[in-house]
Amino acid sequence: MEGSTGNSLSGKKTLEDNDVNKSTADIATSTVYVNHAEIAWQQNRRQWIGDQSQKFKRMPKDPIISWSTTYEDLLCNDEPFPEAIPLAEMVDFLVDIWQDDGLYD
To answer: Burial of 90 by CB count in 10 Å (0-12 exposed, 13-18 middle, 19+ buried)?
Structure first.
């Protein structure tokens, strides 16, 4: 009798194990997280920036600030520039001036 009881218990454990494995597999496949806010943000971003593959590469422009312009020329002039100076160009100009004056390491 002990032998038959052991077999029925082992058979019962196998059925329970199968049920646990099935429910674990069901949970694993049904709990995929989808970040809807991130998807919406990516779609909005694509609309804002447009299709980057269609944009042409800009040709490098001549600098707005002349190579002969001095720091004093900029400070003493009250007139606005004819066009906006790109930030990168202004930073390069200031770094060059500061290096010449020994103020930038």
So the answer is: middle
Two tokens at 99?
């290096």
User: 8-12, 25-29, 77-81: which range is least confident on average?
Assistant: 8-12
Cα torsion through 43, 48, 49, 54, rounded to 10: 80
CB-CB contact of 80 with 64 (8 Å): no
DSSP 79: S
Contact by Cβ (8 Å): 76, 82? no
Mean of the per-residue pLDDT values for the chain? 75
Which tokens belong to 49? 């920036």
Q: What does the alpha-carbon distance between residue 25 and residue 17 come to, in Å, rounded to a whole number?
A: 12
Q: In this structure, which amino acid lies at residue 17? A: D
Please give the biggest Cα pair distance in the chain: 109
Hey, how many other C-beta atoms are within 10 angstroms of the C-beta on 93? 19
- CB-based contacts of 84: which residues, under 8 Å, 6+ apart? 64
